User: What shape does this take?
Amino acid sequence: MFKLSDEGVAFVKKELGRYEDKKSAIIPSLFRAQVENKGWVSPEVITHLSQLMDIPESAIDEVATFYTMFNKQPVGKFHVQVCCNISCSMNGGREMADYICKTFDIQDGDISKDGRYTVSRVECLGACDKAPMMQVNDDYHEGLTQEKAVEILRGLK
Ligand code: FES
Assistant: This one.
């Protein structure tokens, strides 16, 4: 059973107070809940937010499903989002995603056996001039090579 921390509840209530339409508070609230739920939005998260925000579960689920930054499946400790849009692809982004998956013996969306990594291929993350790049949790890593990406991932604590 998922429940936000006291600080999380206070955050959601504050967000609700900021907007005329309380549905506008769904995105920041989902972000907060995702962080507190080990990086993903489970059905229990949706139920909890629905009760807390007095918004139908379906409305919250729609938002969580529409935006790719919300994970609807569990992810590893480090969620590795490799940009495979045009600029990154032209600079080896897709091959880099393949190399990371092969190195850690996973397919896209899987969690590695040690629980550390999930790799997702994503659309443009807005750092096209530093392609190829990846986002790991909240951090951007840019101007990568395949080897450098794996070295960064192996060094994460
Ligand atoms: S194409 Fe990769 S960051 Fe824009």
About this structure: Residues 2 and 121 are 28 Å apart (CA to CA). The first helix runs from residue 6 to 18. Residues 83, 85-88, 124-128, 131, 133 surround FE2/S2 (inorganic) cluster (CB under 6 Å).
